[in-house]
Structures are given as C-alpha cells and as structure tokens.
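WARN retry 2 of 3 for item q-0093 after timeout on previous attempt; input resubmitted unchanged.
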Amino acid sequence: MKNKNQISMPSGQEKQTAIHTIISQGMPPSTAAVLMGLWRALGLRGILYGVGDCMVLGLLAGAACWLALIYQLLAGACWLPAALVAAPASYAFLFQLAYYKESQLGTQEIKMVCRYTLRHLTAFRLLLFGGIAAVLCCVLSGIIGLFLPLRFGQAAVITLAALALYGAAHLTVLMHCPNPWMKNAFPAFWAAGCLLLGLYAPIAVWLETLFSQTPVILWALLLCGILFYFKQISVLAASRAEGESVYASS
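OK item q-0093 returned
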C-alpha cells in the first residue's frame, strides 16, 4: 500500500520544464518584444493619440528646413551646415512638439498608469519619428540628386548619418543629463553648432571635400550612429524607473 505522506520526486523532464518556466518568466523581455507588445496593444492610433496635429506641424517645419538646404545648393554656397540642420529637423520638431503639448495638457500623468511604462511609449515614438525622418531624408535627397548638383548617394548618406548621430546624442542627453533645461534646449544647441560651422566656411568646405573623396568615413559615421541610436533606444525601453516623465525630461 502506497504511503500517502510520501512526496513523489519530479522526473528529470519535469525539473527541466520547471527551470525553463522560472527563467522565462523571471527574465525581463527583450526590447523588441516589449515594443511589439505595445504596438499590438495600442496600435498606431493609440501610440500617437493626441499628437496628430504635432505630426503635421513637425513635418511641415522639417520640410521648411530642407528649403534652406536647397537654397544653399542653388546659390552654390557651402551646403554642409544646412544639411546637418535639415536632416534631423523633422525628428526634433516631432519630438519637441509632442512633448510640449502633452506637458501642457497634463496627459503625461495619465499615461503613467498604463500597463506599459512611459519610457516604452517614448522609445516607440522615437523609433517612429526616426523612421519618418529617415524616409523624408531619402525622398528629398533623391529629389536633390535629380535636379541639383549633389549626388543622391552622397546626400542620402550625409543626411542619414546626421539624423542618426543627432538621435543618439539626443537620447544620451535625455537619459543622463540632470538639467531639464539642457534637455529641452539640445536641438537649439545642435542648430547653433551647425550655424557656427557655416560661419567658418573653410572648415565646412574641407569637410565637404573630405566626405566626397573618402565616402567610407560617411558610411562609418552612419553605421556608428545607427548602432548607438538603437543601443540607446534599448536602454531607454529596458529601464524600470517609475514615476518619471514620458520624455525623461524631469
């Protein structure tokens, strides 16, 4: 007769199944899994809820910055500073306008009680804004390559590299700079640095010549910017800090 007080030991397969379950449920999900879950839960309409007008204004403002680049090319002047400003312009305007509207309306606090954290939403929005800005860079670079004296490949790589480097630097400032004013003023500092480069025309012309003669430098900058940008996105989405602003600016 079997003793009722005797506890049967699990088999080897049951032990492995239990260990796998504990590890899979205890380990934090990957950034891709979290963002895909956010996409399935909210959809594009939910992720951009309340900032549709900011999307329109941001794209229009970004396109206006590209007009300055086109003007520089038509005038035969130094175009690199204008390209460095125009490339991340739509990305910066989309982010800053959405941040300003939600901070004024107080909807950031509402999002703090959602299943997904505010940092998850910020990471997804930044990826979306970056994708929109990258498509805009490629399309406008193609137009420039057709009608203006600048090759499509060169224009596309320069603008995409500037966009990636700006995005990576912007995320680094957002997550690690303790001064909220500095975080919000970063786009202005970027633009001011590009304008200062334009004031020193010999340096800008030298850089244009360098990029034209050694395109491998551009490709290296583009690759480094993309890798660093996605690394920062992953760090932002993986952070478990609670009670912080959706834009990590407070």
